[in-house]
Design a protein that fits this description.
Elements lengths: L2 H5 L7 H7 L2 E2 L4 E2 L2 E2 L3 E2 L4 H10 L11 H18 L3 H10 L3 H4 L4 E5 L5 E5 L9 H13 L5 E3 L8 E3 L12 H20 L1
Helix pairs in contact: 2-7
């Protein structure tokens, strides 16, 4: 679990998924006169390896090849596209197989956990094996119903993934004081321009 996922109280069971989706930062707004810099923590195979190490995700044998790196980016892109949908639309997309291509690259094996339950572990035994943890969290979150609370900010200039802790689970923005306020102000100004 990262400082970021702890700061925003993302449940441990979704922390790697949250961090992986947010490894791409496409925010492009100005806040207090400062332009937010866009970044990608997974800029190349080496950076992906560093990211996995930092998050305690096991890397089995070998190094991350360019093809493996492309597979990881495909997984992240598909997960972000999935999380950008509202929960009802996600179920339709899941039934339509939106994530199937990326998920097939990270097969999971169920094992008894020694406490009367079961856990999912990576079937892969290469340098990308640790990303199977992200896929397992996606699966477990969908079973527990917590995945519906992992959302993408509705502000086009943000698109950050956040965990909706509100009781009715109806939040639209990662931070109402930042993204929500910016959208409301923009809507207010547009409405008053139309009246004038």
């Amino acid at each position: 679990m990262s400082k970021e996922s702890r700061k925003f109280q993302v449940p441990d069971q979704l922390a790697h998924l949250y961090d992986f989706a947010n490894s791409l930062d496409v925010r492009h707004f100005v806040h207090h006169g400062v332009q937010h810099p866009q970044s990608d923590e997974l800029a190349g195979p080496r950076e992906l390896g560093v990211w996995m190490d930092k998050h305690g995700l096991p890397k089995a044998n070998g190094r991350i090849s360019p093809a493996m790196f492309a597979t990881a980016l495909q997984l992240r892109g598909d997960i972000r596209a999935f999380l950008a949908c509202d929960p009802v639309e996600r179920r339709r997309k899941a039934r339509a197989g939106l994530l199937d291509g990326a998920l097939k690259q990270f097969p999971l094996v169920a094992e008894a956990d020694g406490e009367g339950g079961f856990t999912l572990r990576a079937s892969r035994d290469d340098a990308l094996a640790g990303l199977s943890v992200v896929v397992a969290e996606l699966h477990d979150g969908s079973i527990r119903g917590t995945l519906d609370r992992l959302k993408m900010c509705a502000a086009e200039e943000c698109r950050r993934v956040f965990f909706d802790r509100s009781k009715p689970a109806t939040r639209r923005w990662c931070m109402s004081t930042l993204c929500g306020n910016r959208i409301k102000t923009r809507t207010y100004r547009a409405r008053h321009r139309g009246e004038g």
